[in-house]
Amino acid sequence: GIARTLPTLPIRDERVREIAVAAAKGGGGLLGVGTAVAGATLGVLAVQARRARRTIGPRTTVPPYADGRYLPPGTTVSRGTSLRLAVIGDSGAAGLGADSPETTPGGTLAGELAAASGRTVLLTNTAVVWARSRDLEAQVDRVLHVRPHVAVIMIGANDVTHLTRPQHSVRLLGDAVARLREAGCEVVVGTCPDLGTVRPLSTPLRQVARRMSRELAAAQDIAVREAGGRLVPLAELLGEAFEAEPERFFSSDQFHPSAVGYQACAHAMLPAVLAAVGLASDGDVPALPAP
Question: What's the whole-model pTM score?
Answer without folding.
Answer: 0.84
